[in-house]
Amino acid sequence: MKIKFVLVKQLLIYLCFCLTVFASSDAAVAKVTKIEFTEFDTYSSEIIHINVGDTVEWLPTNEGHNVEFIMTPTMVSLPEKSKMNEPHSMIFQEAGIYVYGCTPHLNTGMLGLIVVDNDFHNIEDINEIKLSPVANSVLKRLANKAKSQFKID
Question: Residue 127: how many CB atoms within 10 A of its CB?
Answer without folding.
Answer: 10
